[in-house]
Design a protein that fits this description.
heterodimer; A: about 400 residues; alpha/beta; seven-stranded mixed β-sheet; three-stranded antiparallel β-sheet; 12 helices; about 40% helix; B: about 400 residues; 14 helices
Chain lengths: ~400, ~400
């Protein structure tokens, strides 16, 4: 029996892997010490667990554990990276920030706040496939660009930006390069020994770890400095104060360990299911994939169903848990700003669905989803006057609508 | 099996069974992102709403006054920097005994042109009212005084202090992290007296680490510390930590439900402990102040606190030599120095903080262990003295 609704929203959040939960629980109950307690075994035990987890996180992305700073999540990591570096280096480097229009709100809103504080920002518009080009990036980079921020993997359309090349350019320009990798861990290999990335944000809950924990990679060689954003007891080498949530940190460590060990085979399986879903959906007429399909993580499929009204689509698909636009902005009825930046019309943006598959997605669930989509899209279009006009061969873009 | 006795509840506490049971389903079953509109997301949103009500109810606040954060440190940072960002730089007054997560954000504000003033305390760790009133002449725009001190347990007359401070137009904040679950907190009454904001933390009251809250009077204009997505009325962005928030809610409920019985129990244990300590010749800090029922901070003449707690740990008793957060720092406690305690005595400070689970037997065992440790250290000291004389 299928459990409904079927969860196909793994980019919004993932369940905690039961193996991860099992490792976390003792740190809530019997091993509950404060890792900052230096005077007893409860504290040392917690501190040891925190340091083990730091090694596990570092291992997934091939960096030194000392380069990992714990935060409450990727949003905080992005804030710390951008505000921390912008403020630290503004006086010596300049006040220009370079980023991309399709970044997550955690980056865009932070850059906006920095603009309010007197920084100047450039937002690159990606090509129609969601990718920015190395050439376009190079041209926008200025002598006074203090920090550039480009996400590794887009949360809505799953496209992978050319991080390696961009890093080289930033290094040559003396610009701090930040990468939001919240959607990338466990989906693609990340090698920080090779990448010229200075700061990288991570989240646990997108990779089968718990919510409430994330990390920021802060490069030591060459050394990157930050203004701390949270002051207090001087935890995390003064960069981020506050009692460390041991169980969550242990969970992130275990989740990243599992990702490192299993991502190759897991991604193969998920890619196969995703491709099956894609083939199954593309049978439906007037269906468009959003974002480049080659430079893309294996678990994401973002599709627009033309001539279907977005809200009714979501209502009709209540047996599958998917998202239209990213979870963090889906409370608003605005069409996805990511799809708009790709040049999609409001109509196509509104009728888009993001399917994100994951560790616990089964073939049966994909079969069900394909069948459901055929059925529901067909039904919605039967009711749609626009679809009727389309079938009659009327080009809707030329129609003049009367206002009432 | 060797099970050490935990007497460091002001540093952190174990999660209670009920809290754990409430949290567990939100890891792997009801794991939705509260911003998602499908059933998984809505279930998470309902859980957060319910937790918000529980937290609000526990401290007499309205649910819309609760801003969830990653913990007490973040809540303190959010208030101080957030409120400061909406004001013209002026005077910020904090007590001399604040936790580093109030002291250091205040110092960071100095770079933006704020003048940081410290309010002195007396020898018993109570706000020195003459000094406080002098300071109010400078018309501070922000005042932060902790409800109860994490080291000595001294409780401040927050309502009265706030009433004085707001007459000068200040926004008044209190860090109530150590008070929650140990003394009754009523934000409505505090708010009526002039308190505008109050910090809470889950892991000090049998809840999980990773959740806290700022209770805030909505008249206070606050700039967020963390941008991106607009969660928590735009004051704290980032995917909500659903299991921790759920655990926080239940922990608040438990903390308040058993409060008067717990207070009585803890007061009885504290009395036993202090009688024993006095018999050993210990100085009990802030003894004259109204204090938390669970906290005893003491020093034994001539003995180093670090050495003492290390020995006690080996004997099976987990206590602290200072605040956990600054335990890496070998400096004597800033709290004791503010009270005018001589550095030599301050270096001997040991903090015992009891929990509801502790028993009279735990206290008796601790006193026995302490007594034998003390005589051991004294005989070592006299032996080395003798040695020194012979040499």
């Amino acid at each position: 029996m299928l459990k409904l609704p079927i969860y196909l929203d793994y980019s919004a959040t993932t369940p905690v892997d039961p193996r991860v939960a099992e490792k976390m629980i003792p740190y809530l109950t019997e091993k509950f010490g404060n890792p900052a307690s230096r005077s007893h075994a409860f504290g040392w035990e917690a501190e040891k667990a925190v340091e083990e987890a730091r090694e596990q996180v570092a291992a997934l992305v091939n960096c030194d554990p000392k380069e990992i700073i714990w935060t409450s999540g990727a949003t905080e990591s992005n804030n710390l990276a951008l505000k921390g570096a912008a403020h630290f280096y503004a006086a010596t480097k300049g006040k220009h920030i370079l980023t991309v229009a399709t970044e997550h709100k955690a980056v865009l809103d932070t850059v906006k706040e920095l603009e309010r504080q007197g920084f100047e920002a450039t937002y690159l518009l990606p090509q129609e496939n969601g990718l920015i080009t190395v050439e376009q990036f190079k041209q926008a980079l200025r002598k006074d660009t203090v920090i550039a921020s480009v996400m590794a993997v887009n949360n809505e359309i799953g496209v992978i930006q050319p991080i390696a090349e961009l890093g080289e350019i930033c290094r040559d320009n003396g610009t701090i390069f930040h990468v939001d990798a919240a959607q990338a861990t466990g989906k693609m290999p990340i090698d920080l020994a090779k990448l010229k990335v200075d700061l990288m944000s991570f989240s646990a809950h997108k990779t089968y770890g718990p919510k409430g924990i994330g990390a920021l990679f802060v490069r030591r060689k060459p050394r990157v400095r930050l203004e701390p954003q949270m002051h207090g007891g001087g935890h995390e080498r003064g960069l981020r104060s506050g009692t460390l949530a041991t169980h969550q940190i242990v969970g992130m460590g275990e989740a990243f360990r599992i990702a490192r060990e299993e991502m190759a085979s897991e991604n193969e399986r998920i890619r196969r299911l995703r491709d099956k879903l894609r083939k199954g959906i593309m049978d439906i007429e007037e269906t468009y994939i959003n974002g480049d399909i080659e430079h893309r993580v294996p678990h994401n499929l973002n599709v627009s169903f033309n001539f279907v009204e977005g809200e009714s689509l979501i209502m009709a698909l209540k047996d599958i848990a998917v998202s239209s636009g990213s979870a963090c902005t889906s409370a608003s009825l605005e069409p996805s700003y990511v799809l708009r930046a790709l040049g999609r019309s409001d109509e196509l943006a509104h009728s888009s669905i993001r399917f994100t598959l994951g560790r616990f997605t089964t073939e049966e669930e994909i079969d069900f989803t394909i069948k459901l989509l055929h059925e529901k899209i067909g039904k919605l279009r039967e009711l749609s006057p626009l679809w009727e006009m389309h079938l009659e061969g009327i080009d809707l873009s030329t129609v003049q609508w009367a206002a009432h | 099996m060797f099970a050490p006795v935990y007497l460091d509840h002001n540093a952190t506490t174990p999660v209670s069974e009920r809290v754990l049971a409430a949290m567990l389903p939100y890891f792997s079953e009801r794991y939705g992102n509260a911003s998602s509109r499908h059933e998984y997301g809505r279930a998470a949103r309902r859980a957060i709403d319910e937790a918000r009500q529980r937290v609000a109810h526990a401290v007499g606040a309205h649910p819309t006054e609760v801003i969830f954060t990653s913990g007490g440190s973040e809540a303190n940072n959010l208030f101080l920097k957030g409120a400061a960002a909406a004001l013209k730089p002026g005077v910020i007054a904090i007590s001399a005994i604040e936790h580093p997560c109030v002291r250091n954000p205040a110092r960071a504000l100095a770079r933006d042109g704020w003048r940081v003033r410290e309010i002195a305390v007396d020898a018993a760790c109570r706000i020195a009212s003459a000094d406080f009133h002098d300071l109010l002449q400078e018309r501070p725009a922000l005042v932060s005084v902790m409800y109860a001190n994490n080291e000595t347990g001294a409780i401040q007359p927050i309502a009265a202090l706030a009433a004085d401070a707001v007459r000068g137009g200040a926004w008044f904040h209190t860090d109530a992290v150590q008070a929650l679950g140990k003394v009754p907190l009523d934000f409505r009454a505090l708010n009526a007296a002039g308190v505008h904001a109050m910090t809470l933390s889950a892991h000090k009251i049998g809840g999980p680490k990773g959740a806290g809250a700022l209770i805030i009077d909505k008249r206070v204009e606050l700039a967020p510390l963390i941008d991106g997505g607009g969660h928590e009325r735009g004051l704290r962005s980032g995917t909500e930590n659903v299991p921790a928030i759920v655990g926080f809610g239940v922990a608040c409920e438990e903390a308040v439900a058993g409060l008067s019985a717990a207070r009585e129990h803890l007061m009885r244990l504290r009395r036993l402990l202090e009688e024993g300590l006095t018999a050993l010749g210990a100085t009990i800090f802030a003894a004259a102040a109204e204090r938390l029922p669970n906290t005893v901070y003491f020093s034994l003449a001539g003995l180093d606190g670090e050495t003492l707690v290390a020995k006690l740990d080996r004997a099976g008793f987990a206590v602290a030599s200072g605040a956990a957060c600054s335990a890496a720092n070998p400096e004597p406690s800033h709290v004791l120095l503010a009270m005018g305690v001589a550095p030599a005595i301050a270096r001997g400070a040991v903090r015992v903080s009891l929990g509801r689970q502790n028993t009279a037997e735990d206290v008796a065992g601790f006193l026995r262990a302490l007594s034998s440790t003390v005589s051991q250290l004294h005989s070592l000291a006299s032996a080395s003295q003798t040695l020194a004389v012979r040499i």
